[in-house]
């Protein structure tokens, strides 16, 4: 008898270990799949994630199945941890399935420092980083951009940063798409969005965004870890942020336009938050160009923060950052819809691969993996909570056949920010991390720390275990926080 899982009016059947499926019914165009262990599935079923996942199968052109990664939780229309490949010729593109923080993502910078080099200087380092890297809501960035600067960033991405002295050549070759989406159309980004972004270039923002100094605690695949330049006890830096107010405004702009111009498509969807523009329409092309421009902005945002971090380390440790081996390992986007060619049940197709809170995970040999990692697979960075550590994976061989080349993007939330502030007190969390785990945290408010308490998140070890077992993202190394700054 087939094993099933009941969650309200949703019944999932077990396809095989860690793969659960909601069969098509009613107006569902394809099945919906959840990749999870039973404990993770029980947590995923606690909110509207399964309902939202089922709703995504109504989008025109959705191909094979809609997916929820092991870290999935309720989002805006489309679940966080959601992946959908949608036909780029006969389907649609959905801003809600990308999210408000376009190209929210993470980058990891390795160093030649060891934990002993940092031990005893954590407070000095966290204070210096907090002073140097703008955090929190509103304006303030490493660069106060005028209009021509914003236009150049939107069009050229990290190439602009290289020209202006904020990057080195290796930063481009170790970034997804070399830090530039050539389909970017700055003219498709509204003036209001540009105005919101111009003073936020090089800033973390608020919420779950952070800059974290970490140490490598474990390596699981010696050959791949060596290819990635990772070794136990090594210090690395993880940066997590996105396109700030510019991306948020762009998403909002296009959701409103879709409501006005494609009300007929919207009327056929079970949730207005899935608002989508038909492939080939003027609005779909405009949104894609605007989204790609926001992607470029976010890559520059993380690049500027990394540059400032290099300067801080140079000051604190009194030597040039180059001598400390502060090189970019990789930068990955996890809120994005990209045109990619995939083998589907209907043959090879160009798809808009929507990844919302999911990470591209292309395996070894894929032509879009940077040359430095083509023999090992694309690096995948999965942040955990401040008290549980993070992981580096490599793109798994099964990812192309199972998940349109995708895996999880983090631990995934267990509770809302409102609930977190009711359950935790920021000062207690901060003290507990410092005294119990030697993790030094600084933020602009105690509420921010409470919202990001370790207890707010799922078990990242379990999320990664599922990814590794399914072969969509293979374990390479584990890291643990040393110090962390938040908005």
Description of the molecule:
The chain is α+β, with helices and mostly antiparallel strands and about 475 residues long. Helix content is about 35%, strand content about 25%. The protein has helices at about 40-45, 50-55, 115-120, 120-130, 145-155, 160-165, 170-175, 190-195, 220-230, 245-260, 265, 280-315, 400-405, 415-425, 425-435, 445-450, 460-470; strands at about 5, 10-15, 20, 30-35, 65-75, 80-85, 90-95, 105-115, 210-220, 235-240, 275-280, 325-335, 335-345, 345-355, 360, 380, 390-395, 405-410, 440-445, 475-485. The strands form four sheets. It has an eight-stranded mixed beta sheet, sandwiched between helices. A hairpin with a 2-residue loop joins strand 1 (about 5) and strand 2 (about 10-15). The chain is globular, with a radius of gyration of 21 Å. It starts with a strand and ends with a strand.
């Amino acid at each position: 008898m087939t094993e099933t899982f009941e969650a309200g009016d949703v019944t999932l059947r077990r396809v095989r270990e860690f793969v659960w499926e909601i069969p098509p019914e009613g107006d569902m165009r394809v099945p919906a799949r959840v990749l999870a262990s039973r404990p993770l599935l029980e947590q995923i079923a606690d909110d509207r994630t399964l309902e939202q996942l089922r709703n995504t199968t109504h989008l025109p052109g959705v191909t094979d199945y809609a997916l929820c990664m092991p870290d999935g939780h309720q989002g805006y229309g489309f679940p966080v941890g959601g992946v959908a490949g949608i036909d780029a010729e006969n389907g649609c593109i959905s801003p809600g399935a990308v999210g408000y923080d376009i190209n929210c993502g993470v980058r990891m910078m390795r160093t030649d420092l060891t934990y002993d080099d940092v031990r005893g200087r954590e407070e000095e380092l966290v204070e210096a980083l907090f002073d140097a890297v703008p955090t929190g809501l509103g304006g303030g960035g490493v660069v106060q951009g005028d209009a021509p600067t914003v236009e150049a960033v939107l069009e050229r991405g990290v190439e602009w940063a290289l020209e202006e002295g904020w990057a080195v050549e290796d930063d481009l070759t170790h970034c997804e798409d070399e830090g530039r989406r050539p389909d970017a159309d700055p003219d498709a980004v509204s003036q209001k969005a540009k105005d919101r972004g111009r003073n936020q270039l090089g800033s973390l923002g608020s919420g779950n965004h952070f800059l974290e100094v970490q140490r490598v605690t474990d390596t699981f695949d010696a050959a791949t870890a060596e290819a990635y330049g990772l070794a136990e006890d090594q210090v690395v830096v993880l940066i997590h942020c996105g396109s700030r107010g510019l991306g948020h405004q762009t998403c909002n702009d296009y959701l409103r336009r879709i409501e006005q111009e494609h009300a007929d498509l919207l009327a056929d969807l079970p949730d207005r938050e899935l608002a989508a523009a038909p492939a080939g329409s003027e609005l779909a092309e405009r949104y894609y160009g605007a989204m790609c421009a926001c992607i470029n902005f976010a890559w520059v945002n993380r690049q500027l923060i990394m540059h400032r971090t290099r300067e801080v380390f140079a000051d604190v440790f009194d030597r040039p950052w180059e001598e400390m081996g502060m090189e970019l390992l990789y930068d990955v986007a996890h809120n994005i819809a990209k045109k990619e060619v995939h083998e589907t049940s209907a043959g090879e197709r160009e798809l808009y691969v929507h990844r919302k809170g999911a990470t591209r995970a292309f395996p070894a040999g894929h032509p879009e993996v940077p040359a430095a990692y083509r023999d090992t697979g694309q690096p995948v960075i999965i942040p955990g909570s401040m008290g549980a550590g993070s992981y580096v994976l490599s793109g798994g061989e099964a990812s192309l056949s199972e998940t349109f080349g995708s895996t999880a993007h983090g631990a995934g939330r267990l509770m809302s920010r409102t609930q977190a502030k009711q359950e935790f007190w920021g000062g207690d969390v901060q003290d507990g991390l410092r005294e119990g785990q030697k993790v030094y945290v600084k933020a602009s408010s105690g509420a921010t720390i409470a919202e990001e308490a370790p207890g707010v998140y799922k078990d990242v070890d379990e999320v990664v275990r599922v990814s590794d077992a399914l072969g969509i993202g293979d374990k390479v190394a584990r890291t643990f926080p040393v110090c962390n700054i938040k908005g």
